């Protein structure tokens, strides 16, 4: 009878593939998809706050609200005034909403992805920008290549190494 092997502690190895359906302990947590419960996706206060946050962050970089509005107008081809931004960001102005079509211009004008990331998080998505997106795509391609290598090795073993 062969001696029994002692169990070894689990070691997280990024090169080791995980079983299908079993999340990797090294993986970045991904937001859960929305539950669909009534009122669970209400986000008007968050939108107001995050638009204000983006504009305030731009102020730290030397851009006034008027400058942000002017840049957004330039980018969208629509007239967007400082007063319009103020109305969209004031919780006291319940009838005013920040239009979704302004979101790309807000991001470019303020260099803030906070609102986009918050909205993505609410629906179980993740926003990747620049190098993050490239790294994620490279990771996907590496995983596909590993899968193809494993399938190829399995076929070679099954058919006696013949190609």
TrEMBL record:
Keyword annotations for this protein?
Plasmid
Q: Where is the composition biased (Pro residues)?
A: 20-33
Region annotation Disordered: residue ranges?
1-33
Domain of life of the organism encoding this protein: Bacteria
Please identify the protein, giving its name as recorded: Uncharacterized protein
């Amino acid at each position: 009878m062969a001696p029994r092997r002692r169990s070894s502690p689990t070691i997280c190895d990024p090169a080791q593939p995980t079983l299908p359906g079993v999340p990797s302990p090294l993986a970045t947590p991904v937001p859960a998809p929305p539950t669909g419960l009534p009122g669970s996706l209400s986000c008007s206060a968050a939108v107001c706050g995050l638009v204000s946050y983006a504009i305030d962050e731009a102020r730290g970089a030397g851009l006034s609200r008027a400058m942000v509005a002017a840049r957004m107008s330039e980018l969208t081809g629509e007239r967007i005034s400082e007063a319009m931004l103020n109305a969209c960001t004031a919780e006291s102005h319940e009838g005013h909403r920040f239009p979704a079509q302004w979101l790309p211009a807000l991001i470019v004008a303020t260099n803030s992805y906070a609102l986009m990331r918050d909205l993505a998080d609410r629906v179980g998505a993740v926003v990747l920008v620049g190098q993050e997106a490239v790294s994620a795509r490279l990771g996907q391609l590496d995983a596909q290549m590993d899968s193809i290598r494993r399938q190829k090795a399995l076929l070679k073993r099954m058919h006696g190494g013949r190609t």
